[in-house]
Amino acid sequence: MYDAPPVPGVPYPGSLMVGQQFTEATLREKLASFGTRVELGGELVELAQDRDQVTASVRFDGQHQDVRARYLIGCDGGGSTVRKQVGIDFLGETWEQQRMLFGNLRVDGLDASVAHMWATGPGGGMLTLAPMPRSGTWFFTAPLPPDDGQGTSPVSVETFADIFSQRVGMSGVRFHDAVYLSVYQVNIRMVDRYRDGRVLLAGDAAHVHTPAGGQGMNTGVQDAYNLGWKLAHVLRGAPEPLLDTYEEERLPIAEHVLASTTARGRFWSSDDSARVSERIVGAFQGRDPFSDVSQLSITYRGSSLARDLDEAIGIRAGDRAPDAQPAPQVSEGRRGDVHTHRILPPGLPCSDSESALIDSAGEAHDLYGVDGDGLVLIRPDGYVALTGGSWDDQSVADYLERVTGDRAHRFERVAAAARSAW
Ligand SMILES: Cc1cc2nc3c(=O)[nH]c(=O)nc-3n(C[C@H](O)[C@H](O)[C@H](O)COP(=O)(O)OP(=O)(O)OC[C@H]3O[C@@H](n4cnc5c(N)ncnc54)[C@H](O)[C@@H]3O)c2cc1C
Residue 91's beta-bridge partner residues? Predict the structure, then answer.
């Protein structure tokens, strides 16, 4: 069991339910803004790799097409063809006796301003119905008894209505128009490596666990977020071992997520309904005793990419850079691979006010634990790369050279400007 550590600077104390269709639509819109389109209907059948590239054989409308690329990321879910093709094991267990009914459907006759939970007694477990914002639908969850003969066969709206009526027995509630309905079998599995040559895995392809606490998609998104900037740098010439830090940083997180969701899943399916409902309500209010469900307290301290020059400031390399006050636009001349910001307490004289950010409420200084001078280098994924008690050109340039392979001439230009105004 884990204590949920406080997440400094996180202004989101509770949870909001958002249907995955909205999250996916948001991601697709963002991709479209980069000129990239998600192509549906293709099926990866097999893949091969050599020293220079990966060849994926994809079936579109019965036609095979070879797609060649320098790297391939398998984000193809728990049954991942990519993972099987490269022979990476999916270690763990299937909880044969733990099956859940999940659905997203319309419900009449319930107050949609609150989520509803019914402790339905021994064997019945907790039945929940939570209204989903924007869609007018409800998220339905209920454990199924191990021996009811349903297997994972398709279920209908009537199945959900029957379970509700048997366990809750409330009249005037009507179920209809499902977005999806499913019987979910708990699998707790993960890979022991995230990479095979030019092939990497992300998301459910690398780890699956109980949905208790809603961690799966979040973990997958953070995999992609961790990998994205590293892959971009390697494609632009950074040393290849940068890609190995993906597994180094993300595999321990997957282990932690499996452990915390398993502990939470076992507790939530126990018969102590009073304690279970108290804990579930607590989790929605941002107090989950099993782990930080927001995943914002994740740290990569100790990673080979984390470097503390000294311990002069509070924040440590590997931590998530906390949100401080909103930054105004920096001037065009300071854009490049490295953006340099000088964050000053109010009232300090500053020769170059254009590039300085004034920490008027002292929020940034507090959150980063800086009292006096401090240096924080932040990675493209928003985690702290390097910390120190004072500006140190050489250490920053060395760090950037080691990680990106670039002596960072662009960095030196902006560093010189910052130094002169320090
Ligand atoms: C009932 C339930 C509730 C959940 N609730 C939450 C929650 O509240 N919060 C949360 O963060 N997570 C939640 N999860 C987990 C979340 O849904 C998954 O972790 C997430 O969808 C995984 O995303 P993914 O892209 O890695 O894999 P998937 O969503 O499985 O996507 C894989 C994609 O790859 C495609 N694919 C597979 N094989 C091939 C192939 N050979 N060729 C081409 N395409 C292929 C599939 O069609 C699919 O589109 C929940 C899961 C369940 C079952």
Answer: 190
